[in-house]
Specification:
341 residues, mainly alpha, 0% strand, flat
């Protein structure tokens, strides 16, 4: 049986439809644009103040975690528990298994030091996001790189221990007695130090990922070259700071020691024929930047002459030609016509 609406209901439906159609065709009442702009400015000011307060609070928390290796390790463990195991079902057995494996490794100085470096770099990143001037941060950043370089030496030494332990195990001898496995310590260390501070588990727990958005910044606390190339060198170049050359000397020494330590003829040859000339070319470019053109030109020419088959030799020659070629002369201004008599 088909239902037919009553005449009264049909009239109501038609009236509602007509009213809705008319409303859709009509604009809302006029608004006061000045009042809206003023309110918008107030909202923006409030947003800035709230973000500033959030960053200041986060900085205090991060600096507390970075105060010592033990504090950093404890904060990292809590971040792991919160992000990966929090909940009745998982926090019991699975978190216990993690603590017996990676948690024990985190107690060792190498892994704990990685956590402290992570929080230190996170604090520096927060400070930069708060528009702290680079001239104020630069001494702290350079100090951080020295700590990071020492950490790299320590973890390389641990890697040597791991290789010796494997060799000893293969020969039937026993390696050194240690509370935890060296391989687990190195793995945990590397996981922490390579985690970008903007989205690591620590940043997730503190809910500060969006606050760590800094242009032209290295996000990994463990990337020494990235910190130099993205953060330190641009600042030193902008101020024509002579410490630029110290960086190249440190890199040359570090890479030379690494190649020599490998005792592999291939690595030593690669360093001498490829890596070393590249470092010296970069250094010469900064010598030029510092205003020592004659010295830079001499160093560049010697590199091109000594390494004519280097993979970047063609690029070097083109750059060197631009340095030697004088800039094109400015065209003479047209003579003004003689004054009319």
């Amino acid at each position: 049986m088909r239902f037919l609406p009553s005449p009264k209901l049909s009239i109501l439906i038609a009236t509602a439809t007509a009213t809705a159609t008319l409303s859709a065709q009509q604009d809302a009442p006029p608004v006061n644009l000045n009042e809206l702009l003023q309110a918008l400015r107030g909202i923006k000011t409030q947003q800035v103040q709230q973000t500033k307060a959030a960053k200041q609070k986060a900085l205090q928390q991060v600096q507390a975690a970075a105060a010592s290796a033990a504090a950093a390790a404890a904060s990292w463990e809590e971040a792991v528990r919160t992000t990966q195991f929090e909940g009745a079902a998982r926090e019991g057995s699975q978190f216990k298994e993690w603590r017996e494996r990676d948690g024990e490794a985190l107690k060792e100085k190498e892994a704990a030091n990685a956590a402290q470096l992570h929080f230190k770099w996170m604090a520096l990143t927060l400070q930069r996001s708060m528009e702290t001037p680079m001239k104020d941060l630069l001494p702290l950043i350079i100090g951080f790189t020295k700590e990071l370089a020492a950490d790299q030496i320590a973890i390389e030494s641990l890697g040597d221990d791991i290789r010796r332990e494997r060799e000893a195990a293969g020969s039937g001898k026993h390696g050194k007695d240690r509370k935890t496995n060296d391989e687990a310590v190195k793995r945990v260390h590397d996981q922490i130090i390579r985690s970008p501070v903007s989205n690591s588990i620590a940043a997730q727990v503190l809910k500060i990922g969006p606050l760590l958005d800094v242009d032209g910044w290295e996000m990994s606390a463990g990337d020494l070259d990235g910190i130099y190339n993205k953060v330190i060198l641009p600042e030193l170049r902008a101020s024509r700071d002579p410490r630029l050359l110290e960086f190249w000397d440190i890199r040359l020494k570090r890479d030379s020691e690494k190649a020599t330590k490998s005792k592999l003829a291939f690595e030593i040859e690669k360093f001498n024929q490829v890596r070393r000339p590249e470092i010296l070319w970069g250094r010469a470019q900064d010598v030029l930047l510092l205003g020592q053109k004659n010295r830079a030109v001499g160093e560049m020419f010697n590199l091109i002459k000594t390494f004519p088959t280097h993979p970047r030799a063609t690029e070097w020659v083109a750059a060197f030609e631009k340095i030697l070629s004088p800039p094109p002369a400015e065209p003479d201004a047209p003579l003004a016509p003689p004054p009319a008599e």
